[in-house]
Amino acid sequence: MRQKVRRILLYVSLFLFPITMNFLSPYVSVDGAFAGVLSGSAIMFGVLFLSGLFFGRAWCGWVCPAGGLAEIGQTVTARPVNAKRLRIVRYSIFAVWFGVLVTGFVLAGGIRGIDPLRMTERYISVDEPVKYIVYYFVLGIFFVLDLALGRRGACHAICWMSPFLSAGMLAGRLLHLPQMRIKARAERCIDCKKCNNKCPMSIDVNAAVKTGSVKSYDCILCGECVDVCPKDVLSYRKPK
Ligand code: SF4
Ligand code: SF4
Ligand code: SF4
Question: Strands 113-115 and 37-39: what pairing?
Fold first, then answer.
């Protein structure tokens, strides 16, 4: 039941992507930065950081439109990815993009205004035919990478949003904030590795179980491992 609800939420989010695209866009935030304007997407990246403080990467598992696309991709191929190697690629891309964003604000003399609807004046991101080119291009890149690289390949390889979530997770841990996590009762585990086979982020959940919880910054709190485990080893630790 939980996985059905989760997938429905992701598919609804994917369906709404023509409306929300600009609020997650790396281009719109950079365009705003060079004008000294905090755009809707730049604000959204800040919100993702804040959500990471308490909810880790739950956004990825339950809300993100690209997550809906990844779920479709997983019906075609569900092979695990080499997360370590792809992390280098992702953070390299992120460093360049974030550098450009900061440079934009510096050259513009800092943040001189806020415009949540920058480039989205009619409240809908894809509001004219030409913007469908961008829309399909983004969807196409994500879907091809999901198919070519394996489970949630695009999330591992190119996502510019996940570093904000991971930074929020890190800050939350350093500040000892109550943070949602998957905890484990290791003594019950029979090493069947069903959790590993099911994890959409290719995490070695079986190994994490031995440490008492899943601490990986890749964990998207989807609960697939919780629901597949035959021995009830895993459960959510909710923030208190
Ligand atoms: S990693 Fe990025 S693209 Fe993938 S679900 Fe998370 S925010 Fe969305
Ligand atoms: S599915 Fe459960 S019992 Fe099997 S390896 Fe994972 S945690 Fe252990
Ligand atoms: S460890 Fe469990 S909750 Fe985390 S991503 Fe993997 S399956 Fe989902």
Answer: parallel
